Amino acid sequence: MTSDHPHVPHLTTALTGPLQQIESHLLEQQSRIEAWLRAQWRETPAPLYASVDLRNAGFKLAPVDTNLFPAGFNNLNPAFLPLCIQAFQTKMEHICETASNILLVPEEHTRNLFYLESVATLRDIILKAGYQVRIGSTREDLDAPLTLDLPSGGQLTLEPIQRRGNRVYLEGFDPCMVLLNNDLIGGHPEKLRDLEQMVIPPPDLGWTVRLKSGHFTHYHEVATEFARMLDIDPWLINPMFRNCGELNFQKREGEECLLINAGRLLEDIQRKYDEYDIDREPFVVIKADAGTYGMAIMSVTSVDELRSLNRKQRNKMGSMKGGASVSKFLLQEGVYTFETWGAEEAVAEPVVYMIDHFVVGGFYRVHKGRGVHENLNAPGMQFEPLAFVESCINPDTNQAPDAEPNRFYAYGVIARLALLAAARELADHREELAEGAAEAQA
Amino acid sequence: MTSDHPHVPHLTTALTGPLQQIESHLLEQQSRIEAWLRAQWRETPAPLYASVDLRNAGFKLAPVDTNLFPAGFNNLNPAFLPLCIQAFQTKMEHICETASNILLVPEEHTRNLFYLESVATLRDIILKAGYQVRIGSTREDLDAPLTLDLPSGGQLTLEPIQRRGNRVYLEGFDPCMVLLNNDLIGGHPEKLRDLEQMVIPPPDLGWTVRLKSGHFTHYHEVATEFARMLDIDPWLINPMFRNCGELNFQKREGEECLLINAGRLLEDIQRKYDEYDIDREPFVVIKADAGTYGMAIMSVTSVDELRSLNRKQRNKMGSMKGGASVSKFLLQEGVYTFETWGAEEAVAEPVVYMIDHFVVGGFYRVHKGRGVHENLNAPGMQFEPLAFVESCINPDTNQAPDAEPNRFYAYGVIARLALLAAARELADHREELAEGAAEAQA
């Protein structure tokens, strides 16, 4: 397919040697890996959906962020929409087998047309899976249905969510399930609290409660177990991280802890680089522990760089979407992106989408003006989405380990490890709920 | 996609008006239909896989045969292989969640390269779904592995099935499940009887036991329930049928019963044609009740035609694959095929594939030298397979009811009704087994 389609990237990867080793390994062990994953999903069911940002350094392939309220469905290859539809049907049979009416609750920022295209794609997936679906808005200023025209030519109608007792509904529409596509970073709206209807994913997995460090603690466990099974160094698929307590960039409170941890992390990375003869400069990414949208994020290559931040940089690190202030940070090993696209060698970062535990597609964020160690999901960033041309579940052992279907298979495996970490977060959450209920009864 | 690909048929359908009505109806009622089907699958789980031959007369869209041991996987659009893989994963999670090694048992006729390509495709689906799979042969003359080269460039290795106690295995391979792709028309091999391993589909759904009339009795019920829900005439999706007792074409035994029933069926069809102003000649298809491979099948437009069969025709109706003699026949309303392909107006018959209750693809059997009311699956027939270019689960309400994605959706709905009939056959079979076990205990 590649040669006929001008929209398909030719990906050139520097330092492919070690990655080919990871890919070869994953390919050879496919049936063991899948059997292992099957056992994991039996123990810990996957969330309804997720997207995982991966970075592919050639010598290392690792997730750097896992989104439990994914946007970007419009960037997937339309040829794989049937996979999304089928996976959604399967998931619904498990979680709510008699459901027929679904209320989809998206983010409130209705001026982001790209995001609205994603919501429209998600709505179509649900519709085609055979459900009635309407879109409810939590916006307080919405008192009548609002129909928006989309660049793709489609339309999207947002309707005000109404509430009666412990049920939400729309005019003439009584949903049996609420599907959240809102990360609740602005807080958990009153309207959606304590509903008798099932709310999926649970609101407590929104950024009001969830921490990246919690996710990566689970991911560390998952990657360690997986690497043990395959007898590989877990570092090849696992970004190291550290976090410290409360921190105020503007007031320079908690800075000493930050500097010490950043220094130690840089040393740890250098040690691994030495071990693998990697002639690159280690870097650390500092990001809000409860953050999204590429806000409050920066990358540094030395402690000095961190010490000498200017006021503007400090302010930037202190504020989050919706003006919330940030006090908890994650220090994560920076993973280089050595996948590039085209003659300009634009940096490309894969994003993998999953519904239930099925990998349903993905795309590359291609950013022309950005470096190999910068964050690609940053405010105002102009990325060009490049849909994966192949599915991630159709590896071909007759081709090279680095051929597209096999690289995409590798992406799908690593993304599912991050999904498993998210599934364990979800299980923790369920346990907490159960304990809470038990205490309330006692 | 259509215009770029020379291998995509341009389908011209005469008399599309009434079919567009069926298609429009199915499209409008999609979420009701899917909700209804979901409830059906909860009550009666679908078989592991099936293919359904449909005939599209423009005024009528109906299944004419349901195969529970489908071949032809190689004819599906490779772009939809991921759908097959995902559906197979889902099915396996339900029926045998800890399975890892699967023994695939195909038909014995190893000289049919088209069939072997299908087995190879099925093997790849299972492999890519994450299972170990090897192919076991029931052939008595096979005492060592036999590797066959396929026209596609691939290979297939058949290994002799060995048995120890109540388990089958291959050299160095202990399967936990046997997947049958053999309709057992030659009988149920001793080697595969009374196994402690799970055998799927159950051998009793092979043609040693199963009857088409049993299937179409269930289909009649399903079509009636479905038509009632949608408030349409069930005849639009249901071929009428009759059967009579034992019959010997060569000896002309039971002929009177055959003639009477054929005459009544032709009258019944004429009545419906009159009701719908259809200016076509009714015809009846007579086929072996336990038959396959297009053997022992003929179509007649009058009782006289049937009365005056010559010796050759009578002999042809009396024998089946493997030389078995035929004594039970199904008389089925002939459904015209008004889908044609190309300037030659070659007749095209859709075949829809399902894994679990998911429609995973399909293709057209295009036969250039055959008429609109002849059987397209006949010995020596030369059909050209034309893979569906679109999936059957991605209808598009923005396009005409007869646009490809919508026509394919309609095919997928009707095929799933036939699948549901097969699911009920399977349930009957399970009940019989349970009763048998209860009696044995008593």
UniProtKB/TrEMBL annotation, chains A, B:
NCBIfam families: gshA_ferroox (TIGR02049). One of its GO terms (molecular function) is ligase activity. The lineage of its organism: Bacteria, Pseudomonadati, Pseudomonadota, Gammaproteobacteria, Thiohalobacterales. Keywords: Ligase. The keyword Chaperone does not apply. Pfam families: GshA. This is Glutamate-cysteine ligase. It comes from the Bacteria. It comes from Thiohalobacter thiocyanaticus.
